[in-house]
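Translate structure to sequence.
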């Protein structure tokens, strides 16, 4: 039997802006001879700062390098508390700064870092907390801010999924000490590769600016060891043009998720990530939670059956960080993180991108429904 989708439907893909508009900018960049970290990057920084409602935006080569530079600039020491339920880059950035990641649990319903779990891990060695807006769902920012203030800790957000995310009606970007956004092609807003560090702290912004240029502020006598994590003019141009349709794309994703939820919520054993009433998810990803006894099969079986039909699915985030090889040396493999284990063993991300076809979503949902009801007449 041939698969439901002859042409594989990807888990995600970038929604491209107007090709002619981008080409025109590339033309002018090439003619100018200024091909990196120049006028287009400045323009993109100004526009992203405005969109995010942050005082400063610093363009970097990736979200990962942005996180690395934020932690470097804050001169952190000792331990940094991070969620285990996230993409591994969150913790790589900690390790590259010679800091120890301390993995904590996520909330059972929102999948975001659990403030109670954070509080339990604060010691005299802790210097910072990193929250992640998982799948575009904003972290419990208020609770994290309270813990950070009380314990004099720095608060950083991995906002890789955060373009389009709103916390209590306000765009993320200006929370904590700084937030780092990703512009890689799997994210809503892309510049091919790239990142934005957003902050309201002028001193921190300037230090990240110097840090992205080897730590050299221009006198060839750097005060600290930075990176080369500059953004090219071509990336900035792509970002500028893509930013124009970001809001439209976030709204379309929210509509497509409503359609997914309308069709899937009637199936026993399927539930969804909880988004608080006054928040907005960017829906960088759409994830469903499978209860084996009610749905009739477990996550892994469902994953295999969907993949066999050429449906792009992912086990985000499995294995969770505290069980990944790169982090075993920190000795937290057997830590009791029950929600992290549960969510990472039960979740499956379904195809979602800003221009996904309604008919494709319907086909995917009909197939999942059929898997549950078997051959019985619905
Ligand atoms: C994609 C992603 C990153 C890494 O972003 P890059 O721009 O590729 O460095 C970091 N954290 C999370 C949660 C991500 O999803």
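Result:
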């Amino acid at each position: 039997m041939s698969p439901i989708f002859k042409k594989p439907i990807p888990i995600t893909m970038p929604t491209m802006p107007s090709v002619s508009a981008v080409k025109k900018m590339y033309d002018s960049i090439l003619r100018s001879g200024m091909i990196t970290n120049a006028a287009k990057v400045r323009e993109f920084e100004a526009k992203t700062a405005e969109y995010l409602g942050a005082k400063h935006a610093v363009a970097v080569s990736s979200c990962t390098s942005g996180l690395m530079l934020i932690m470097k600039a804050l001169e952190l020491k000792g331990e940094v508390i991070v969620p285990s339920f996230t993409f591994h880059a969150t913790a790589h950035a900690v390790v590259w700064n010679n800091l120890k990641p301390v993995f904590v649990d996520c909330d059972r319903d929102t999948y975001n870092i659990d403030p109670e779990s954070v509080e339990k891990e604060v010691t005299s060695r802790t210097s910072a907390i990193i929250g992640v807006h998982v799948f575009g769902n904003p972290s419990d920012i208020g609770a994290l801010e309270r813990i950070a203030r009380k314990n004099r800790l720095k608060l950083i957000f991995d906002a890789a999924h955060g373009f389009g995310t709103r916390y209590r009606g306000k765009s993320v970007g200006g929370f904590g000490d700084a937030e780092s956004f990703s512009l890689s092609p799997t994210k809503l807003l892309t510049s091919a590769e790239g990142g934005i560090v957003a902050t309201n702290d002028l001193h921190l912004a300037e230090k990240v600016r110097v840090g992205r240029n080897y730590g050299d502020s221009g006198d060839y006598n750097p005060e600290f060891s930075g990176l080369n994590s500059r953004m090219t003019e071509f990336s900035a141009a792509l970002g500028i043009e893509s930013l124009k349709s970001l809001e439209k794309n976030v709204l379309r994703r929210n509509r497509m998720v409503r359609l997914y939820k309308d069709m899937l919520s009637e199936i026993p054993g399927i539930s969804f990530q909880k988004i608080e009433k006054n928040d907005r998810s960017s829906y960088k990803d759409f994830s469903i939670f499978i209860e084996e006894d009610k749905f009739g099969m477990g996550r892994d079986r469902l994953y295999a059956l969907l993949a066999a039909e050429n449906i792009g699915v992912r086990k985000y985030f499995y294995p969770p960080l505290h069980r990944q090889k790169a982090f075993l040396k920190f000795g937290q493999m057997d830590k009791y993180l029950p929600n992290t284990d549960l969510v990472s063993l039960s979740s499956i991300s379904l195809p979602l991108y800003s221009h996904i076809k309604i008919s494709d979503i319907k086909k995917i949902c009909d197939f999942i429904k059929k898997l549950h009801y078997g051959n019985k007449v619905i």
